[in-house]
Amino acid sequence: MRTPDAEITPLPAGSLVVNDGEIQYSDALAALRRFEPHICYTRGEQFYPIDVGRYVKECSLWVKRPDQPAELLVPQGEISLEELVKPRLEPFGSIFFLKFIEPLDLIELTKYSINQAILKISSKVDLERFELGRGRLARVGYGSRFVDALFSLTLVWRGRVPGDTAAAAALTYQRLQSEEKRFTYYGRVVRENGWIALQYWYFYPFNNWRSGFFGVNDHEGDWEMVCVYCCEEPKSSQVDKPLVERLVPQWVAYASHDFSGDDLRRRWDDPEVVKHGDHPVVYAGAGSHASYFTRGEYMAEIELPFLSPLVKLSDKIQNLWQNTLRQASQNPENVEFNIFRIPFVDYARGDGLTIGAGQDQEWQAIVLDEQTDWAMQYRGLWGLYAQDPISGENAPAGPVYNRNGSMRVSWVDPLAWAGLDKVPPPVLALPLLKSHQQQVIERNRELKVEIEQKSQLLQKMGVEAAALLNQAHLNSVYQQQEKQIQQLSAELSALRRELATNRERLQVFEGYREQLKNGDRGSLRGHIRRAHTPTVEEDYRFGVLVEVFAAINVGVLMVAIVLLILFARQYLLFGLAALIGALVFLEASFRRQLSRLINSLSIGLAIVSALVLLFEFFWQVVVAGVLIGGFFVIWENLKELRS
Amino acid sequence: MKKAKAGKKRFNRPASITIATMLQIAQGGGLLVYGIYQLLRHGWALSETVGGWRYIPFPLFESVSSGLILTALGLFTLLVAIAFYFLKEWAWLAAMTMQGLGLFVGLVNYARHRPNFLGMALAVVLVMYLNHQEVQQAFRRSKHADP
């Protein structure tokens, strides 16, 4: 199934510019090829990585100047990668963006919908159809559902990608692929601090997570990245070996939603990293294209900026409830859950197309470096600028830049991006440790000499102070001497502490040195603070009834409120309470969570009652508190006397 | 005999269980005493009423029936307290339901200007105890320890 030109990649003469020296172009390509990831998509995925040249040809170029409507600079069909990078002067705050597609008109959209329906019925496409899993709303409580409804309403006033744009993008992408089927990645090789980072950049023409898979957003253009970190074999074994054969993979990091730093990377020998030979396997989220190590369905939470104070307040109350009052969590399975964050499901099932060497489709590799003009010179967005203040619907900038024109950390510092800047390659760890150990030993020698000298000085001063004591005429000299003694004593104390700590450090270093000598690299997952884990199927075994109920109840409630206001305003409060009570009770019964409901209700009532009691007996409570405090102190003191 | 000892060792009863039990006994005892008092006080009047059920004055009927309900609730609370002490799985839910109902009635009565502040305070403290991590862990342990 290898595409005819999969091996044909542009090979310019010379070497690549990398951070620490140069790597031959052919070496870079071979290294990239050796470890290129296999990406497993979810059934129903409509967009796969494409080469930017073909994409740009389908686009028009626009500029949005501050306080002005967007203006067309280059119309569709007239733009190329060369045209894209031409310097253009615009006022501060201007945003360049590509526009991939015009939304379909009504006739085209109807035609497309009918075609899709026919294809869905046919058995051929059934294999590619997305099967919706357990509804995200059925997995969370009422608070989150209300916030979700709020989020859906914000789409009305927020700038967004029109719904039919996804259909138009899908049609264009299908046409492009029917002309020439290619699946492209852009590979970059960076040598830094003894590491060789192989970056794999994937450009998708469209992200249809919202319209295709009930996710957070839709936007044109989507850049994703996977990075494999290798080190070179020691020099003794490098004789005549090309770079590609000298590389030993150590870590791999996948870009994924709001994860950053250490949490992004896994060690190559971590069982969580699925591999086909030397190729790490990536499970891509349906529509979102976020990368995961394990196949499954992931709960992704997003936070609306204007709700962040409530999120913080809710976190603080939860903390007080659980840690200070030692009360049990109402949500023991998911400790980081917050009702003001909106839950979405990212489906990374890996049951669709797989792209990679020897898989359903193979990659076309194109090498990317600091000489690649379209990456370095074009600072605009790679798709529609929807003017969404939350940015979820705005297209991203390229692999080098952020939306605001600053450079991406992943491009400037691939090691820091995955928290690897503090980790030396295994071959360098031992020499680094030895050198550091030597430094500490040196420092300890200096400390010992310094402590010896200062101890003697302190004793001399102590003797002098003893002599001066009670000599009234030398009072000021004595006071000064006392001050200096205190200062020197504190200094000496700090030096002794440093010496003791250094001795402990040296002991630990010795142990770690032995560990490194034995080839033990320490904890496999100790660096991970927060890991993405797929939801367990058993946790969400809800019936269809629960799913339907979860989907409709917030809407039903809103309609009922309107009906109550219109037809029975005098019973509004009672009706509302009864309605909410009935809905909550029904759902808790469906989910077999009545005990949790009773617990939550009782806690709610207890809080209200406590407030009532505080209101009625404020001063009595204060007096009782003081009395209890007083008795407690007396009791403690009496206990001390008795002992 | 040995088996019973091993079983006892497994359920190392935390102090908060004992305190919560004592509070429930106090609550149940209070309800029982008040219920019996109501029955005794108004029961005689009821027995002296002539002319059948139709002629029972409503306030009297209300007092007697509330006395009956309170007595039953008091007995049930005491039963739950004993089961709670022995970490029976159902007792925690029953106790929490009782407190929820008690607080609801307490708040309704407060709104109707017939407050029972002592009962409310007792229920608030009990809810805190029932939801305490130590208590929940003890019930979870006993649930898993059950054969």
Overview of this protein structure:
- The complex is a heterodimer of chains A (643) and B (147).
- With 643 residues, chain A is an alpha+beta fold.
- Chain A folds into four domains: 15-304 and 344-423, no CATH class; 305-339, no CATH class; 427-517; 539-629, no CATH class.
- Helices cover 45% and strands 16% of the residues of chain A.
- Chain A has a six-stranded mixed sheet with strand order 11-10-9-8-7-18. In chain A, strands 3, 12, 13, 14 and 17 form a five-stranded mixed sheet that branches. A three-stranded antiparallel sheet of chain A has the order 5-4-6, with no helix packed on it.
- In chain A, a hairpin with a 2-residue loop joins strand 1 (15-18) and strand 2 (21-24).
- The model of chain A is unreliable at 1-15 (pLDDT under 50).
- Chain B is mostly helical.
- Chain B has one domain (15-145).
- In chain B, 82% of the residues lie in helices and 0% in strands.
- Chain B contains six helices and no strands.
- In chain B, helix 2 packs antiparallel against helix 5 (117-130) and helix 3 packs antiparallel against helix 4 (89-111).
- Mean pLDDT of chain B is 82; it is low at 1-8.
- The interface between A and B is medium-sized, with 20 and 24 residues.
Task: Please name the defining characteristics of this protein.
heterodimer, A: 643 residues, alpha+beta, 4 domains, 6-stranded mixed sheet, 5-stranded mixed sheet, 19 helices, 18 strands, 45% helix, disordered N terminus, B: 147 residues, mainly alpha, elongated
